[in-house]
Amino acid sequence: MDFQPRPAPAPPDWGVDPAPGFGDRLWRFVSELLHTVAVSAVIFLAVNLVTARIRVEGSSMEPTLHDGELVVVSRLAYRWGTPQRGDIVVFRFPLDPERRFIKRVIGLPGEDVVIRDGVVTVDGVPLDEPYIAAAPRYSGEWELSADEVFVLGDNRNNSQDSQTWGPVPLSHLIGKAVVVYWPPPEIGLIPHNGRTVEASG
Q1: pTM for this model (two decimals)
Q2: Topology of 51-189 in CATH?
Q3: What pLDDT is recorded for position 24?
Q4: Which of 51, 89, 110, 69 is nearest to 173 (CA)?
Q5: How many CB atoms sit inside 10 A of residue 173's CB?
Q6: 176 catalytic, yes or no?
Q7: How many Cα atoms are found within 13 Å in the side-chain-facing hemisphere of 2?
Q8: Of 60, 74, 159, 162, which one is the catalytic site residue?
Q9: How far apart are the C-alpha atoms of 94 and 170, rounded to whole Å?
Q10: pLDDT under 70 in the chain at which residues?
């Protein structure tokens, strides 16, 4: 009578994969690292496409902005919209496009700006400007074309701006300053005065 040997029992299935070898662990680490770097690069590029960061230099925008503050600028503000009176904007300096300035929009395209006796008027209407450090001590008249804005620093008597070198072409605008992010005590949204022109009465 023939006897067949009984097959050896199968090892128990504990539901656990065998530990990966060093090569597998290294490849997984490299894959995760590359994924993280790629995602970070996409986020960095996206942020830089829609925003810019600048450092305020000097006192020309006091008391609104101060020397050394770091500001986030929206590049999209004027891609789909137009500057409004009172906007604080960053732009390429008309006399040297490599330099960037930050000032407040006072005159809009096609308007006439007059500064006389410490008062700024636009198309004959005086501006209400609670944000300035002091009334301007200079005078002048400017007629803006359809593609220009007139900008002034809030520290009127200590600012190089449109009263010195003229209007700014719309094509030179980089964006609208939206928030101070440094130093910590000054973190917050930048106030814009959108109703600077008041009817004379």
Answers
A1: 0.75
A2: Umud Fragment, subunit A (2.10.109)
A3: 74
A4: 89
A5: 22
A6: no
A7: 1
A8: 60
A9: 11
A10: 1-22, 34-35, 37-51, 194-201
